[in-house]
Amino acid sequence: MSLTSFLSDDGELRILLDQTFPKPEFAMEVPRRAEPQTRNYALIGTAFDYVLRFWLERQYPDAETKPWVAHQGLQLAQALPMDPATPEGQSLESFLDAIEERHAAYLESGEMTDELLGGTLDLARFDWVYRSGRPPESLGEHAEGDLADLRQLLAIIPEAEFRGADSVLLNPTFGDASRLVNGADADLVFDGLLLDIKTVKDLSLKVGYWRQLVGYAVLTDLAADDTTVPSQFDEIGVYFARHGALWRTATDAIYGHPKYDQFADWFRERATEHFGGDFPGA
Questions:
Q1: What domain of life (predicted)?
Q2: What average pLDDT does this structure show over 227-243?
Q3: pTM beyond cutoff 0.85
């Protein structure tokens, strides 16, 4: 369970969130610049999350990073235990170590090799272990179309849009507030802007995207000083990777809403009840 599943499973939460913080108008019109090369949509989406974070690490050497979710997948695979096939019979740990070495080489050289792009596909498979509890499949198998897809997504990153930040957080969590919903990690935070990455064909602000962004805005406020992310975001937004387009909006309509405090208190109580945990101040 997680923030995603909390929003998906709790109908009353969705209704109250939609009524209190309606999805804003979305008028962006940008052509799709990177067509899918295979039907591995979810795999590519997670792999590109890694690609973009690696690219940002290269641009911002002082960026604050969290351990990869793939490491949690490895720990789960070792604990269960799982025995998936790996190339040349490597252990899962040594397999992941090899990807870390390619990652370190990229940060040094700036060359995004096919081997590292392939490694991001495998990191996505380790993520799946953590999120599903199932063994990783097809480790080491990197379809040419998937590599080409990741490379074109990398090529259209709007570099100017990602320049000039004083503080960059990659894959940040929300301290105790993350545990409140049994897991919540965002993609990127630039100064006061939280960004979610969507590697999707349609350029539209789906209501599920908006609910997730509002959820993050509430969680960072609930976390207060127990997190490295800002106590409140100035803006929230989505990077549409297949369009090379970044959409953002101010959070005034959330934090400045007259019923925000009431909603945040209800959200905390509802999550505590839903997940059966505890939270300071609850």
A1: Archaea
A2: 91
A3: yes
